[in-house]
Amino acid sequence: MPEPALSAADLMLARAQEEGRARLRLYIGAAPGVGKTYRMLEDAHELRRQGLDVVIGFIEPHGRADTLARIGDLEQVPLRQIEYRGVTLKEMDVGAVKARRPQVVVVDELAHTNAPGSAHPKRFEDVLELLDDGIHVISAVNIQHIESLNDAVASTTGVRVRETIPDWVLKRADEVVNVDVSVETLRQRLRQGKIYDAAKIEQALTNFFRKGNLTALRELALRQLASDQAGKAQVYRDREGLQNPVIPEKVMVAMASRGSARTLLRVGSRMAGRLATDWYAVYVETPKEEPGRIKPADHAALADNIRFATQLGAKVVNLKGSRVSDALVEFAKREGITHVIFGQSARSRWDLLLHGSIVDRFLRDVRDANVQIVPVRTAEEGDEHESGGEAP
Fold it and tell me: Are 126 and 107 in contact (CB under 8 A)?
């Protein structure tokens, strides 16, 4: 009889034993309210159901009812109380967690600064101590708390984040999970009071939670995840003594079937020139865009995109399929694409629900490709829709 498939919990332990160290799973999001803490708790329950001993070292529900309810019957290690300037502050008790000896501990708010008198100034240092003691950790952080992105976030949002983690902490993570929702969904959660108190909602909507800010932060999160995956692949090859695979560089521009794609095509042309390689301009013809069904304006825009791509030296490829992501992933794998360029413009929550996230699918299924996301302006670039020209 064939052996039963390993569960997620078994795989986690097997990898840890193979590598000889405790594992860090890090959930990353573009902004508060995307659901990192809730997702951590869901996965903690799942790991426990699969037989792991899981506890909560520190959780910050921010008063959100759904998050509080999701804690359920997970064991919480009592917090350490610290008196500071007449106020009682509560911090994770690292010593108590180590004494409890769970297999996995959930530690929220990785970039948090501990109260004076704590064992370490920063919570990420607490997490490192737990890892060194052989305890697996599940934690979370927002993209704006990564040190190297601090300036970029400040220039984009006008908000200088004071609590950060060094980039090497992110590299220490064995798994990085992107927790993402559309901009409209996040703003709707804010309006419903699911992120901040009612008194802070309007100020947040007109400041940090502006559409432009959130779109830029989502792009940063996706870029960071792609960079992290590429870096970990290189570290693995170095550790195992594997040579870098001799893979010819191939560039693909995911071109929409409507709207102008000139910005994306220029980027693809420049990249192909730097790499001295051929490149593809690819679009997916869905059933509603077949000859005779495509709108005249879209047909004219597509023809213009094809002419421009040809002028720039691209090999234009017309794929057919009902699911854009499936067609693009299949083509990238078949042709050994190493660099993929997507355009990004605003998407509604309904568009995201209907069509999903093409970039997330790429990051999951085409591990060896570097993904670049190019912001496009609606007025200039047109509606770069789901046929490849737009990323969420």
Answer: yes
Q: How far is CA 133 from CA 100, 122, 129, 130, 325, in A?
A: 12, 17, 6, 5, 42
The reply to whether 254 and 146 lie within a common domain is no
Q: Which domain holds residue 297?
A: 250-381
Q: Tens of pLDDT along 40-84?
A: 999 999 999 999 999 999 998 877 888 889 999 999 999 999 988
Which tokens belong to 374? 């190019």
**Contacts with 35 (C-beta within 8 Å, 6 or more apart), sequence order:** 29, 179, 181
The CATH code of the domain that includes 279 is 3.40.50.620
Is the pLDDT higher at 9 or at 86? 86
What's the CA gap between 229 and 363, in Å, rounded? 8
Assigned domain for 321 exists = yes
- What radius of gyration do the chain's Cα atoms show? 23
User: Distance (Å, rounded) from C-alpha 125 to C-alpha 111?
Assistant: 10
Residue type, 262: R
Q: How many domains does the chain have?
A: 2
Q: Which residue has the tokens 């983690």?
A: 165
Which are the contacts of 258, defined by CB distance < 8 A and separation ≥ 6?
289, 295, 297, 298, 301, 302, 382, 383, 385, 387
C-beta separation of 107 from 58 below 8 A: yes
CA 46-349-70 angle, to 5 degrees, is 25
Q: How many CB atoms lie within 10 A of CB 23?
A: 18
Is 13 within 8 Å of 21 (Cβ atoms)? no
Rounded distance between C-alpha atoms, residue 26 and residue 166, angstroms: 14
Residue 100 confidence (pLDDT) above 80: yes
What token pair was written down for 104?
């996995």
Contacts of 386 (CB under 8 A, 6+ apart): 324, 351, 355, 358
Same domain, 167 and 53: yes
Contact (Cβ atoms closer than 8 angstroms) between residue 358 and residue 254: yes
Q: What is the pLDDT of residues 374-390, one digit of tens each?
A: 776 543 333 333 334 43
